[in-house]
Specification:
Homodimer. Pfam families: PfkB. This is Ribokinase. Its EC number is 2.7.1.15. The protein is of the alpha/beta class. α1 crosses α8 (about 245-255) and α8 runs antiparallel to α9. The protein has a single domain (about 35-55, about 75-80, about 110-300), classed as Ribokinase (UDP-N-acetylmuramoyl-L-alanine:D-glutamate ligase), CATH 3.40.1190.20. The protein contains ten helices and twelve strands. Strands 7-8-9-10-11-12 form a six-stranded mixed beta sheet. It has a four-stranded mixed beta sheet with strand order 2-1-5-6. The structure holds adenosine-5'-triphosphate. Adenosine-5'-triphosphate binds near residues 219, 242 and 274.
Length: about 300
């Protein structure tokens, strides 16, 4: 997993402040986050052999993130500690309806350079997972290195930004939510009426024939060549869907690395993501393989 590690500073508020307004906050808590960090922890909890590639500052948040990832079984030896910048932070007020606003402070994530990641980071990787909370030049270099190492590239273009053609050319599997699918096409996408075909046509020139569009509680659409699978979400009483998308991506990466088809990997991932929605937080909500087996057995 190549990308960002963030300390998520969550704050409960009665309502999100309007511009210029001051509101009272409560229940301030710091949790490990960042897309690559989340995806790495999700994959490692499931038993995947995971290397996390990124950077933190030489500070308390950086130590917390490294320790938390390592405790989940992630190899953090390629998480650089940059002395001159703080660890990335996401400041996230959440109101009583669960609505949030996010201020992302890139810190060390924004200071990674393409040359700053050693080529050894990619050795023996079956799958390299990329997300976009680090500079695009780093993502592009990582994709090129992944190909050189014989790994398959899974791209989760979030937060969305225009994608260089060379990055798309290097991508084996694209994982987007519905909003990102629309941003990719430049128009809102209707998956029930022509959206799948429009996405496939836009991606075909880049050789991408495998993609997943996630749809929150409505499940996901999996496209693998001519095969289109509508995946229903596992029904749960969701308490917090934060990081469900990262749980999904991490689990897909594990499935692909284990040689499963995209449809099989995504079906498993949707159970993992649903499990994560039944617990608070992102990383603390991700199941181990044993917890997942129990969750399945309860539903069988
Ligand atoms: P986020 O940015 O919140 O992490 P996302 O927008 O990237 O998420 P979603 O489409 O919201 O991704 O969710 C990813 C997957 O998680 C869905 O395809 C689904 O399988 C599962 N999921 C999300 N929300 C729920 C829910 N309420 N109940 C069951 N499964 C869910």
């Amino acid at each position: 997993m190549v990308g960002a590690l963030n300390a998520d500073l969550g704050i409960r508020v009665d309502r999100l402040p309007a511009p210029g307004e001051t509101v009272a906050g409560r229940d301030v808590h710091v949790l490990p986050g960042g897309k690559a960090s989340n995806q790495a922890v999700a994959a490692a909890r499931l038993g995947g052999s995971v290397r996390l590639v990124g950077a933190v500052g030489d500070d308390e948040n950086g130590r917390m993130l490294r320790e938390h990832s390592a405790a989940a079984g992630v190899d953090v030896s390629f998480v650089a500690v940059l002395p001159e910048v703080p660890t990335g932070q996401a400041i996230i007020p959440v109101d009583d309806d669960g609505e949030n606003a996010i201020i992302l402070v890139p810190g060390a994530n924004g200071a990674i350079t393409p040359a700053g990641i050693p080529a050894e980071a990619y050795v023996d990787a079956a799958v390299v997972c990329l997300s976009l909370e680090v500079p695009m030049a780093v993502v592009q270099r990582a994709a090129a290195r992944a190909l050189m190492a014989g790994a398959r590239v899974v791209l989760n273009p979030s937060p969305f930004q225009p994608l260089p053609p060379s990055l798309l050319d290097a991508t084996d599997v694209l994982i987007v939510n519905e909003l990102e699918a629309g941003q990719l096409l430049g128009v809102p996408v209707d998956l029930d009426s022509g959206g799948v075909e429009a996405l496939c046509s836009a991606l075909a020139p880049h050789g991408i024939t495998r993609l997943v569009v996630t749809r929150g509680a409505a499940g996901a659409v999996v496209i693998d060549g001519d095969e289109v699978t509508q995946l229903a979400a596992t029904r749960v009483d969701a308490v917090d869907t934060t990081g469900a998308g990262d749980a999904f991506t991490g689990a897909v990466a594990v499935g692909l690395a284990e040689g499963r088809s995209l449809a099989e990997a995504a079906a498993e991932a949707s159970v993992v993501a649903a499990f994560s929605a039944t617990r608070r937080g992102a990383q603390p909500s991700y199941p181990t393989a044993a917890e997942l087996a129990e969750f399945r057995a309860e539903r069988a």
